[in-house]
Amino acid sequence: MIKKIDFYFDFISPYSYLAHKRIVSLNNRDKFNYKAILLGGLHNLGGITAPAFNERKMKNMRNDCMLIAEKNKIDFTWNEKFPINSLYLMRGYLFINHNKKDKFFDVCFDAYWKNNFDISKEENIKKILIECDIETEDFEMGIKDKKIKDELKDLTNIAFQNDVFGAPTFVINQKLFWGQDRLEYALDELNN
To answer: What domains can you pick out in the chain, each with its CATH number?
Structure first.
């Protein structure tokens, strides 16, 4: 079996977006297992107050993301609706057919962190589904399915049990690398 890096993400995380864009620019997408987690749930489990709820941290995070995007030539816009509830889209990522996951992933991230859409609004979710050729009714039923709800909870709980505390987090060879700025460290570990 080919070894891959586990990449824990949530669409609400600007740093996950920036990490993903760097992964794509390096043509390394196939070296990663994309692992959906609910970042708010993870923070609750760890008793962590997210930077979005601390004015000073939030200001720094916004500036930091803009610097990273500029340095890496990533098309990025700080979303005016940050933070939002990403629950439905995270469940949706788990529900949709495997052959549509990459497109859904890219469209959701771009909608939020490039195009400044409020991806918690029903009409914007519908636009995403149309662009990804996903039936709205199927999606709405799928994200309410107990199996999908439990899967997202389980993935978040497992991440917490494995010491993941934020997004993005990369895990390879039982080593954890937290933050978009640790991408190269994770790739180095993969290649060792």
So the answer is: 5-191 (3.40.30.10)
Alpha helices in the chain (DSSP H): 14-25, 39-46, 55-71, 87-95, 101-113, 122-131, 136-142, 146-161, 183-191
Q: Are strands 5-9 and 169-172 parallel, antiparallel or unpaired?
A: antiparallel
Beta-bridge mates of residue 176: 171
Average pLDDT of every residue of the chain: 94
Q: How far apart are CA 192 and CA 187, in angstroms?
A: 9
For 2, 179, 184, the CA distances from 191, given in Å and listed in that order, are 11, 19, 10
Phi-psi region of 27 (alpha: psi -120 to 50; beta: other; left: phi over 0): left
Which of helix, strand or coil describes residue 35? Answer: strand
Query: Phi, psi at residue 169, to the nearest 5°?
Result: -130, 135
Q: Tell me: the pLDDT tens digits for 35-67?
A: 999 999 999 999 887 777 788 888 899 999 999
Query: Under 8 Å CB-to-CB from 4, ≥6 apart: which residues?
Result: 31, 32, 33, 172, 190
